[in-house]
Design goal:
mainly alpha; 71% helix; flat; 118 residues; single chain; two-stranded antiparallel ribbon
C-alpha cells in the first residue's frame, strides 16, 4: 500500500521544500532595513491617502485586464504548440483565428489610448 502513495508523498514533500526553503533563506539571510516608505501601505497603483470612497483613474485596471487577457493567450499557446503536429491544419487555422481576434482587440485598445499611462 505504501508503494502506491510513496511517490505522492515525496512529491508533496519536495513541493513544500521548494516553497518554504527559499522563503526561509530570504528571511534569514536577507537584509532588514525598515523604512517608512517600505512600510507604508501601497495598493492598486496609488498610495492610500484618502478614504475608500474616493474617485480614481481606472486605467490601472484596464492595463491589469489586458495583462490577464494576454497572459491567458500564452497559457493557451503552450499546449497547442506542443501538440500541433498531431492536431493538423484545423488546429493551426483555429489558432490563427484566435490570435487574430486578440490582435484586433489589442490594436483597438492601443488606438483608444488604453495603454497610455499619462
Amino acid at each position: 500500500m505504501l508503494d502506491h502513495y510513496l511517490p505522492i508523498l515525496i512529491f508533496i514533500l519536495v513541493a513544500i521544500l521548494v516553497g518554504v526553503v527559499p522563503l526561509a533563506l530570504g528571511y534569514l539571510l536577507g537584509p532588514r532595513r525598515p523604512d517608512t516608505a517600505k512600510d507604508s501601505p501601497y495598493e492598486c497603483g496609488f498610495e492610500a491617502f484618502e478614504h475608500a470612497r474616493m474617485k480614481f483613474d481606472v486605467r490601472y485596471y484596464l492595463i491589469a485586464i489586458l495583462f490577464i487577457i494576454f497572459d491567458l493567450e500564452i497559457a493557451f499557446l503552450f499546449p497547442w504548440a506542443v501538440a500541433l503536429a498531431d492536431l493538423g491544419p484545423f488546429a493551426l487555422w483555429s489558432m490563427v483565428i484566435f490570435l487574430g481576434i486578440l490582435v484586433v482587440g489589442f490594436v483597438y485598445e492601443w488606438k483608444k489610448g488604453a495603454l497610455e499611462w499619462e
